[in-house]
Design a protein that fits this description.
Shape: globular
CATH topology of the largest domain: Alpha-D-Glucose-1,6-Bisphosphate, Chain A, domain 3
Number of helices: 5
CATH superfamily of the largest domain: Alpha-D-Glucose-1,6-Bisphosphate, subunit A, domain 3
Strand content: 15-25%
Number of strands: 7
Strand order of the largest sheet: 1-5-4
Number of domains: 2
Helix content: 25-40%
Radius of gyration: 19 Å
CATH class of the largest domain: Alpha Beta
Distance between the termini: 36 Å
Order of helices and strands: EHEEHEEHHEHE
Length: 191
C-alpha cells in the first residue's frame, strides 16, 4: 500500500469510491487495483453489527464472493501488524501529504473533494439540463422531490447535485450533514 485516497472529512459514498477506483491512477501511472471501504451500514460487523468492510475491485464493483472468502481466510492467519504512530493526517484539508514510513518508503495521503469526481461522472451519464427543466416545473408542471439523507454519506452529494446543480429548493432536502451517529438513527437506508 503506497497511497491512500480519502474524501475530505473522511466521507465518500460507496458509488463515489467506485467512481474513484475506475478514474484515478497512483503516482507511477498504474491504475488502482481496488479500494477498501469502511462503512457504517447494513453490512454486518463491529460490536453493534453496524460496521462493515467492503472491497471493490479495479472495475469499481464489489469483489466476487470467491475473492472476499480468500481475503477472509488470509485474515485469519494474521499474527501481527504494525502501527505507524507518527502518521498524523489532516482529513479536513484537501491536498497530498507524503510520509516516509520507517524505511519502508513513501506513503502518500491524498485528501480529495468528496463529491467532485462523482458529480462529474453523473453529469456525463445524465442530462442535467433536462433534469433541471423537469425539477423546475418547466416540463410537466410542479414536480416535487423530497430527499432524506439520514445523516449519512449521501448528504453532500444531494446538496451538490440536487440543490446546486439542479436547482431544487433545499427545504426539500433533510438530514444532509453527515453525523457519526446518524443523528441517533440506524445507518441502514433499507429500513
Amino acid at each position: 500500500l503506497r497511497k491512500l485516497i480519502v474524501g475530505q472529512n473522511g466521507f465518500l459514498s460507496t458509488p463515489a469510491v467506485s467512481c474513484l477506483i475506475r478514474k484515478r491512477e497512483i503516482n507511477d501511472g498504474n491504475l488502482i487495483n481496488g479500494g477498501i471501504i469502511l462503512t457504517a451500514s447494513h453490512n454486518p460487523g463491529g460490536p453493534k453489527a453496524d460496521f462493515g468492510i467492503k472491497f471493490n475491485c479495479a472495475n469499481g464493483g464489489p469483489a466476487p464472493e470467491k475473492l472476499t472468502e480468500a481475503i477472509y481466510a488470509m485474515s485469519k492467519n494474521i499474527s501481527k501488524y504494525y502501527i505507524c504512530h507518527d502518521l498524523h493526517a489532516d482529513f479536513t484539508k484537501i491536498g497530498k501529504t507524503d510520509y516516509d514510513i520507517d524505511g519502508y518508503g513513501i506513503f502518500t495521503v491524498h485528501v480529495i473533494d468528496s463529491v467532485k469526481d462523482y458529480v462529474q461522472l453523473m453529469e456525463q451519464i445524465f442530462d442535467f439540463s433536462k433534469m433541471k427543466e423537469l425539477l423546475s416545473g418547466q416540463t410537466m408542471g410542479q414536480f416535487n422531490v423530497l430527499i432524506d439523507s439520514l445523516y449519512g454519506a449521501t448528504g453532500p452529494y444531494v446538496n451538490t447535485i440536487l440543490v446546486e446543480k439542479l436547482g431544487v429548493d433545499p427545504k426539500f432536502m433533510s438530514h444532509t450533514t453527515p453525523k457519526p451517529d446518524f443523528g441517533g438513527g440506524h445507518p441502514d437506508p433499507n429500513l
